[in-house]
Amino acid sequence: MATANPHVTAGNTLADDADVPSEMAVVDTFTKLIFNAYSDGIGSDYSTEQLAIVQALRDVDRNVALDSSREIGIYLRALGVREMIGLVSLVRQGYQAQRQPGLVPAGTESPASTDRL
Fold first, then answer.
1. pLDDT for position 97
2. Distance between CA atoms of residues 115 and 112, nearest Å
């Protein structure tokens, strides 16, 4: 039985998990950002899914909406475990919202709109 997700706005739930990256895929992308924090930016070693995860992160967390990948990595490195767990959930919702207009993850009033990667 699925449990209620406190990070989903009323009336919105994550659709079929096949529509969103797994928690591990989001964590792997965060890890890549953290360890590449001192590189020159997001390169070709990021998959299409990882790039979409980074965009979803920018959409759901205004702290990084306009940041470079280096700045995002430094930000992620400073998060606590509870903050990271909550952010993974929000990013999964943001990823789904990219594909379903009108779905806004909880904790965001209006997702940032940027084309930066």
1. 87
2. 10
84 CB burial (10 A radius; 0-12, 13-18, 19+):
middle
- Are 60 and 93 spatial neighbours (Cβ–Cβ below 8 Å)? yes
Residue 106 lies in a domain: no
Given a cut of 70, whether residue 110 has pLDDT beyond it is no
- The residue range of the domain holding 86 is 17-99
Instruction: Give the pTM.
Output: 0.71
Q: Is residue 55 part of a domain?
A: yes
DSSP string for residues in 74-94: HHHHH--HHHHHHHHHHHHHH
**56: in domain:** yes
What's the total number of domains in the chain?
Answer: 1
User: Given a cut of 80, is residue 47 above it in pLDDT?
Assistant: yes
